[in-house]
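Can you give me the bound-state structure? Components:
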Amino acid sequence: MKILTGNDLPSGAVIWWAGDGWSRHVEDAVDVGEAGEATLTREEGARRVNSAYMIEAVATPEGPRPAHIKDRIRALGPTVRPDLTLKPADPDAGSWVI
Amino acid sequence: MYKYDLYDQAIIDARVDEFRDQVRRRIAGEITEDQFKPLRLKNGLYLQLHAYMLRVAIPYGTLSSRQLRMLARIARTYDRGYGHFTTRQNIQYHWIKLEQAPDILAELATVEMHAIQTSGESIRNISADHYAGAAADEIEDPRPWAELLRQATTFHPEFSYLPRKFKIAVTASPVDRAALRWHDFALRIVRDEARDTGFEVFAGGGMGRTPFLAYPIRAFLPAEQIFSYLQAVLRVWNRHARRDNIHKQRMKILVHELGEAEFTRQVEEEFGHVLKLGTDFPRVEYERISAHFAPPPFETGLSEDIDRSDPEFALWVDRQTVPHKAPGYAIVNVSLKKVGGIGGDVSAEQMDAVADVAEAFSFDELRVSHAQNLVLPHVRKQDLYMVWQALDAAGLADINLDLVTDIIACPGLDYCSLANARSIPVAQKIATRFADLDRQLDVGELKIKVSGCINACGHHHAGHIGILGVDRKGTENYQLLLGGSGAEDASPAKITGPGFDEDGIVDAVERAVERYRALRDPGERFLDTYRRVGFEPFKEAIYG
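Here's the bound-state model for the whole set.
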């Protein structure tokens, strides 16, 4: 599957295209199929996302997982600071990143 | 320390106002990211893996307590409670919000700091010996020259759109603690037979994809001609630089392609022209700047004795302090390399604690080293025990200067959008493997440097043992290098062979260290043994 990611313009936070808006959580990402480029153009033009791009992801029961380690680390946070990841209270949150 | 005058402050304040307006226009959609990116980079603001990253300049690695407290405040107020000291004596924050960046720069300006020249195609923040002004072996304090060059080049139109970044380092000691020969342009202060001050000049060094050591382009340059000479070097580079090819833009590539003799010839020819322009500084300007770096009022008649009855303290003194130029004083190295921690990271609370120690015991001065540690440059030996206790209370009394756990590592794939592999976990695992202090002391000086990509921010080319993270079909892989040095015996490290996974590279490092222990002669460092016996015995140990 193909999903979209980028950064929130004013805060810089990593965000994922959820079909009707942008989410901080990769689990909310949707398969954009052939509509990816058009969505990127529209959303960047509207300044709802910054430096957005399309990536390959794998569908899992827990939601999409980016195919490349770089985007998996983007999705959760630095592997060396679990206290600073998006779900710091969840000890299993990073089990899929590496 | 240098104090801003009205001009310095006006320039920095105006720059904050300008950037505030640029950020406003970007958020309002009046300019695109393509238009905004070069503007934010000129203010040290990158877009990294998780957020914006702000890199703040620490000129020649010198800080006051007041400035360090401001860095702590920024960590606490605008970031996530910590900062990361870099291999170019700067600090960077990894969780910055664009909308708050102008406020941060405004706060920095109140303590005479900024983020200019920490990114982009500019003369980057000039680095220096982190013992400058305190070292027992220095000819004179090199920082006035660094400050003079900083002032001469900041916003200079001729140097504002260089072909690529340009890194300068300055030292004044025979021992190189600033990795001189890994810089585009490096200066070592020397004296000629008439005792006049000048520079031994090196040019054309750099790490990255294509590592080159700077070569000695001038054995002696009269000090007062330094700006003309730098201008000549930059003009020759500007004239020929391959702006069409990002991999060939650095000056080291031009030096390599022209050859040292021809590059030198062209520089000397240009230097002859530039000298006639009379753009060098009058001596009085150097003296104005130099006055800011007058030594602090060292006491005389101090005791050299240190009460070593506490064995932990004695160990710390032996490893973390080095000789000072003034009798009765010592230079204290504050390790930011706790085993299992993140090298170069320091919390806001720790920054405040070190600032307090510096204010009480080191004439209010601090240094940042390119090895990502802090330095208290002027501590009375009779105060060392109190300093040690205060640092210990802040979790900063680790003993490992230049040992196997004092590892340089870039932020790597945990933070950096350029990285291919994580650096920090590798450094943590190696440090944990060698955590036993007796073992570290037995191994002795061993500089391990880890980079998460070929850009080499972790200085892997200069590591006695270097590690380079690469992406191999979507998984992290680590190449091992041996024999590098960033000191006065500078040399590029050599790749040993096929790479390893994360655990495999730790084992490989340990095998190399054990081979060294088996082969070393008395008094030899790892690097000495490697150079004596050569590559093959180590390769055999690593790959079997």
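A couple of observations. Chain B has four domains: 6-61+81-109, 142-291, 311-393, 408-543. Residues 408-543 of chain B form a domain with the Sulfite Reductase Hemoprotein; domain 1 fold (CATH 3.30.413.10).
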